[in-house]
Structures are given as C-alpha cells and as structure tokens.
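Backbone-to-sequence.
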C-alpha cells in the first residue's frame, strides 16, 4: 500500500510483514512477523491494520495474543493487507487503559509474578512463599513475604531521621517511630512528633533503654533507665490476673508488687508487695552463694550471704558512715517502729511490758535450758522446777509448730524481760537474807556489832 507523504517505518514504527498470502477465506489466525522474525505485541491497540484498504478496529475486528493475530472474520483470498506496529516489539511505551493490566500481565520484585501475591487486601510484595495461607485483617494493606529473611528498608540522610507515622482523620502523626541518625537514637512516641517527649528511647551506641525521653541514662551497656520526670506515684509495678488482694487503697487489686518514691521531694524507695488473704509470705529475699565457701568472720570486715548496708553523705559527692547513734535499720508494724539497729551496733526493741513476777523467773529460765537439752549439766535443784515446755510456750517465751507443739524458737525480748525479772527476784531474796542475818546478829551480838559486820562487808540494807 502506498503512502502519501514521508514514510515513517523505522524507530518506534515497524511495518508487519505481509501475511495476505495465507488468506483463504477460512483461516482467522496468523503469526505476526517483522523481517521474517516473530514479534510479540502486548496490547492490540499498538497495531494499525488495514484489510482491502479499510482500517480495522482493534479489539473488535481483530485481537492479538503474544505473536498471534486473530481476525473476527477470516479475510478472503487475495485481500490486501497492511499493518504498522507502534512501539517496540514487546509493547513499546503505550499507555494502557485503566484497569486493563492484570497481575498475570506483568512481573516485578525478583521476577515474581504478581499473580502469586495472594495475601491481604492491599499491596502484597512476595519474593517466595512463606507458607502462610492468611494474614491478620488489621494489617493487610501492605504485606512483604518471603521464604527466608524478609524486611523493609528506610534509608535516610546521615544527619536526618527515618520515620514511621501512625495517624487518623484527626491527626497525621498520633504516634511515631523515629530513628535519629545524628544521635543514634531509636524513639517511640505519641501525641505528635516531639523527640523531647518520646516514651521510649533506644540508645544505639550503648544498647541501653530510657523512658520519658531519657537521652543520658546512668546505666551500663544493656541497662534500663526509668525516668519518672516530675511524677510521684508508682514508677514500676507488677501485675497478674491470678491476684485479687482487694487492698485497692494501696494498689490495684491485680498488682502484687510496686516501686514508689518514699518522698515526693527527697526521693528514697518504697517497695510494696501484696498477697491475697491466706498468703503468709508477702516479701522474701533469697541470696545464693555458689560453691561451699562462706564467710564465717565475726568482725567489722565480715560478710554474709544477705547484707543490708546504710550510709550517709560525706558532705560532697561521696558517701560516709552513718553518724553516732544514727539508726541504720528499722522494722515497723505498718507505720509504728518496733526495732532499731543503730550505728554503734546496738539493738533496740519496742516490746510489750509484760513481766513474769508471778512466776519464779530463774526456774522459767532453767526450764528452757532443760527442755532444749543441749549441753545442759544436771543440777540437784532441777527436780524442784515446777514448769515445763508447754508453760514456756503458753507464756510466749518459745514458739509453736503448726500443730501447736512447743518448739525452741526463742522470744529474745521475752527472755530479756525474764532474765531481768530473775535478777530482780534474786536481788530481793538477797535483801531478805541479809535482813534475816542482821536480825540474828543483833540478837546475838548487839546492834553495834551487827552494824559493824554490815559495814565491814559493805552490805547496805534497803530499809
């Protein structure tokens, strides 16, 4: 077929080889070639085709599939044929119509066909099958799948940030994840991007974690620094759905332990451990020493498996011993102090004033020695003791087992009161004996000689 004007059959325009010799009035399919080489056409609209001098309509009068050209009606024999291919052999640069490209028509991402992207409702990037047949509906807009290591890279400037934002209709950055390349900090925050208010800060240089935008944690590698800011309530709590202690005035009912500042302005630490009714152990400290070597020294330089140390300030940046008579350790009954250990090593107890004046205190003390039976040398006076182990338990001088049987746990402060009573009772007996001897001396020797005897032996009668 002739052209009017300049022919333009090179470059982006190619003339298909004449296939009219194959027209016989019955064949509808023919192979497309350029210079006797098969060509593949991606879109029927890339072909301008004329039969018998009449332009044919793509998609209606003819279709293409790869290198096969199919006519709707078989051309009659001796019908003239002319066709031009627009673009390159593999489809050129034509713009397809909206919605005309299906997953099976293209490939990308390591040559994996998009027709294999079978997960989620949005974009599924798949380099290989992971084995999953479904994905969570709350995160199916973008899926990255592979059979091995898979991931997403966010590349930023060396002094800039890489960001992931979470937003909604009211705010484009309700929450965020940011990596600050200038400081090597990974930040998690909410309420708008503000690095000064990040909830968590991961320090890439020393692998520490800080809260409340703590960028200078005083922990070593791998440590955790909790920055409470100006907060005064609990900084750390532990919960369990198994717990319901009911003491909601102290902590939420499922909280079994919490750490709180002792003083809002001065600091310090309160550890509160809570247990349900029936729990006999609310707080326990256990120390373990490996091996069998233990410190047995009983000196100021000695050590123990569990140690409590108290210290003060040296007036500058260091520490120092607690000052004279300062209290090192206190045990309280809720808010009432009951025991103190002071800087000089003295032990002070606020114990009940119960005494044992109605008993023979010396015999009670001897009863304890006899009942535990360790290293006791029998005395001829032991037969006169009228008390037993049960009486000691009844007086709360020793403990009892769970079944009520008396044991040999000593009530130390009770024993102290008992010993004080025993000493006083012996003092009273001594005075009575001295008075009796003095009366006999007066009867036998006269009052002046009796007084001289008392003076010689430095005996003073209370009366």
């Amino acid at each position: 077929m002739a052209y009017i004007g300049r022919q333009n059959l090179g470059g982006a325009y190619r003339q298909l080889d004449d296939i009219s010799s194959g027209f016989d009035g019955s064949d509808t399919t023919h192979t497309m070639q350029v210079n006797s080489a098969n060509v593949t056409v991606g879109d029927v609209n890339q072909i301008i085709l004329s039969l018998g001098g009449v332009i044919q309509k793509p998609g209606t009068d003819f279709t293409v599939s790869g290198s096969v050209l199919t006519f709707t009606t078989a051309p009659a024999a001796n019908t003239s044929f002319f066709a031009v291919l627009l673009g390159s052999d593999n489809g050129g640069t034509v713009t397809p119509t909206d919605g005309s490209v299906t997953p099976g028509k293209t490939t990308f991402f390591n040559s994996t066909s998009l027709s294999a992207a079978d997960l989620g409702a949005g974009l599924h990037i798949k380099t290989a099958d992971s084995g999953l047949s479904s994905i969570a509906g709350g995160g199916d807009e973008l899926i990255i799948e592979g059979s091995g290591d898979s991931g997403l890279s966010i590349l930023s400037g060396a002094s800039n940030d890489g960001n992931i934002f979470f937003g909604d209709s009211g705010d484009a950055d309700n929450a965020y994840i940011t990596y600050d390349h200038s400081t090597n900090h990974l930040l998690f925050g909410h309420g708008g991007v503000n690095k000064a208010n990040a909830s968590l800060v991961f320090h890439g240089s020393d692998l520490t974690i800080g809260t409340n935008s703590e960028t200078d944690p005083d922990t070593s590698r791998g440590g955790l620094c909790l920055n409470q800011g100006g907060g005064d309530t609990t900084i750390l709590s532990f919960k369990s759905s198994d717990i319901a202690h009911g003491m909601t005035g102290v902590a939420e009912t499922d909280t079994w332990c919490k750490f709180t500042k002792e003083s809002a302005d001065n600091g310090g630490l309160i550890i509160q451990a809570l247990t349900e009714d029936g729990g006999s152990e609310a707080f326990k400290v256990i120390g373990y020493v490996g091996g069998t070597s233990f410190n047995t020294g009983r000196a100021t330089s000695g050590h123990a498996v569990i140690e409590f140390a108290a210290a003060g300030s040296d007036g500058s940046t260091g520490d120092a011993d607690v000052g004279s008579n300062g209290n090192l350790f206190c045990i309280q009954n809720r808010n009432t102090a009951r025991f103190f250990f002071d800087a000089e090593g003295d032990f002070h107890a606020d114990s009940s004033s119960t005494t044992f004046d109605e008993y023979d205190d010396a015999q009670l003390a001897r009863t304890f020695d006899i009942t535990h039976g360790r290293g006791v040398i029998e005395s001829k006076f032991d037969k006169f003791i009228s008390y037993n182990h049960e009486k000691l338990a009844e007086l709360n001088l020793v403990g009892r087992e769970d079944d009520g049987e008396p044991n040999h746990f000593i009530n130390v402060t009770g024993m102290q009161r008992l010993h004080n009573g025993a000493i006083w009772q012996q003092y009273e007996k001594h005075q009575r004996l001295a008075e009796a001897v003095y009366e006999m001396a007066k009867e036998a020797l006269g009052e002046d000689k009796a007084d001289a005897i008392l003076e010689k032996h430095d005996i003073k009668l209370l009366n």
